[in-house]
Amino acid sequence: MFHTPNLTGLRKKWIPKRINEGWGLQHMKLYGIDDEIILSGYGISICKICLSDYQLMSKELADYYGRIHHAVCSLSFQILPDPHNTAGYLMDWPTSNGTVSPLEDPENFTSYASTVLGPLIQPTQTKPALEQKSSDGTYVYPVAQFTPLLKPDASTEFPAVTTILRMLSTSSAFSGARWLFTAGYFNIHPVLSSLLIASTSTSHTESTTRGTVLTASPWANGFYGSPGISGMLPAAYTHLSARFLDRVAEAQRTNSIQLKEWRRGTVGEPGGWTYHAKGLWITLPREEHPSLTFVGSSNYTKRSYSLDLEAGALVVTGDQDLKRKLGAESEWLQKESQAISRDDLRRTERRVSWNVRLAMWIVEKVGGAL
Q: What structural domains and CATH numbers belong to the chain?
């Protein structure tokens, strides 16, 4: 069991367990067997709409993610049964781990973790000979975000995402592209938010890049109806959605960007589904289906890029069959959704109470993130 070095001392003692994941956790979802690896965005049996699940049949990729898995295991506690403990188990720090636990010495733990993980996620020094790349081929570029364990931070996911989005917002070659961004918990990193907004324009022509943000409605949020402070989370994400729409309006991009909420029934009631899909799909100008997508565990939030451990991949394809499947995937995700406006979120039943806003402020001030 991985334990973040960011939750120790008084923080660990006083922060409620229902929300202490806001200070960082192991968020990767990797399912591997033999020469195959599944990159997922969700834990097994947690939710019903949880796309961004990709099976890759490649020994090289399976080995790469296997090394990542092994490395994080070597930086984690071992869970042992203990009938005398109230929880029924104890957390043991194996002597084979090579360093002290993050609870004992967070700084030294992080320094050691940097030497273990840093080399794994960097490109190899010896590059293979350049090959003629097929225009209808598919290329997978692994990305990872290990910010809390890398000093200096050599993570690859945030640079990859921002580079792609910056191309969308600055290169005329991408004018007229379309993008779909989704995260069940919508708290998009402000840099990504700015780049997505900048990729569009105030005009409404064929050369205008258009985008859709898809997120869970409060009634499809896994924390809906949850007791205690975690029950505030659906309203907190509504508040963040409203702030995003305010930014879109201020940039005069209302005609180019829409926000959709997904809902199928109500969580906790018969037939109620939760929504936890995540990903980014980009369709190039004058094309019908996406040819680029990010897959994996990231929610693309400040927490993802500062406190959590994430693993994923950038997939770029010219294969027409795969592009059609990516298009069908992105369309299917939106079937149970509807567009939401600023006015919708200003209605009485959607207004966010002062105590939710106060709780969000407190979490941020003491080093956490949604």
A: 47-53+136-365 (3.30.870.10)
Q: Say what the pTM is.
A: 0.90
Instruction: Please give the structure tokens belonging to residue 332.
Output: 């299917």
Q: Which of 3, 29, 276, 323 is catalytic?
A: 29
Catalytic residue status for 29 = yes
Say if residues 178 and 289 touch (Cβ distance below 8 Å).
Answer: no
Distance CA(222)–CA(240), nearest Å, equals 17
* 178 φ/ψ angles, rounded to the nearest 5 degrees: -130, 145
Burial grade of 44 (CB within 10 A; 0-12, 13-18, 19 or more): exposed
Joined together, the tokens standing for residue 18 give 């229902």
Look at residues 237, 239, 259 and name the one whose alpha carbon lies nearest to residue 249.
259
Q: What are phi and psi of 182, to 5 degrees?
A: -140, 145
Span 243-286, pLDDT tens digits? 999 999 999 999 999 999 999 999 999 999 999 999 999 999 99
Catalytic residue among 27, 189, 260, 323: 27
Q: What backbone phi and psi angles, to 5 degrees, belong to 350?
A: -110, -5
Cα angle 314, 320, 324; round to 5:
80
Q: Does 34 participate in catalysis according to the annotation?
A: yes
**Alpha helices (H) in the chain, listed in sequence order:** 9-14, 59-73, 106-117, 157-170, 190-198, 233-250, 320-333, 342-346, 354-365
**Cβ-contact 307, 148 below 8 angstroms:** yes
